[in-house]
Design a protein that fits this description.
Keywords: Signal
Largest sheet: 7 strands, mixed
Order of helices and strands: HEHHEHEHHEEEHEHEEEEEHEE
Low-confidence stretches: 1-23
CATH superfamily of the largest domain: Metallo-dependent phosphatases
Helix content: 25-40%
Radius of gyration: 22 Å
GO molecular function, one term: hydrolase activity
Structural class: alpha/beta
Strand content: 15-25%
Protein name: Serine/threonine protein phosphatase
CATH topology of the largest domain: Purple Acid Phosphatase, chain A, domain 2
Amino acid sequence: MKNYKKLILLGIAALMIQPNLSVAQQKAKFQQPELENQQSWSMILLPDIQNYVKFKRNQPILDVMMNWIVENEEKLNIKMVMCTGDLVEHDDIVNPDRNKMDQTGKQQWEATATAFEKLDGKIPYITATGNHDYNIFSYTHKPKTTHFPNYFPADKNSKNQRLLRDVAPNIYGNPSLENATYEWKSPHGKDFLFVSLEFAPRDTILGWANQVVNQEKYANHSVLLLTHAYLNFKNEHIETAKYDLQDANYGTAVFNRLVKPSKNIQMVFSGHIGAANDVKKHLGFRIDKNAAGKKVSQMTFNAQALGGGTYGSGGDGWLRILEFLPDGKTVRVRTFSPFFALSSNTQDMAWRTEDYDQFSIELN
């Protein structure tokens, strides 16, 4: 009888311990991001962030993402951060419908600038401007005016200012980072030129960009182009959009007039697209060749309607880590959420590992 009671007690104890073992096993499976090769450097790609800043409740998630970048700067050798645009939901709204957003345009710009302030003086970053960053929502023939230059001046981040090279005039004729280039040499000695173009760049801007990337001094650089509306989820170049703009060029025109004729553009990054809780409708990828016969890897990455749709969490903290290996040609792409990684209860969701979220790119 004593042995029987002992077995019962041991069984109860085992049942009580098992859940703790399960949690320990779950923690053991989760791996924080790390470099595949300790000689690599990495770039962080942020998707459209408008749905984080338009609601006060969502802004801490963007803070988590920015704090994670700073925390992992050394571990992942982070040398650049890029954001695909739509930095705000509405450029200048003063009386928002609180069911759709509870922050004015001014408050949204302030929240965005404050979030990026965490990187100021630490890590260079480049932001595209998206359609939501411009005052074009009346669908009339209005110029693309924006408050972007007020919140992202050239001297906002000292790390950016050191790399800044070429700046084009905005709609007012003033120099603005809406269209700008940044030159940088990687730890492996490879020269890069980062080019950021406004949403639906004007004809004059495409002409300016062509002149810049084809300069002799950039002939041997790898050019990485950042713009907002470029690929759809079917991996096709976007031909047009609903906005009533007379002088606008979307993905097809940007590819045909700038990317394809170039000899050194090797990567294009964009955002813009998405559908409620549908991961694949936030993504696009294709490879074409430019005039030099070099492969151009074109990536759209967004997350704005994940986590509850347009009025949900803002995107569940998803970002992409691009690791540039020391061979100078291999780029490892991984998709990670610092937000889900915060808690052991959600860490099993912190990585997306489908082949469209985790893959390698080979540069020429």
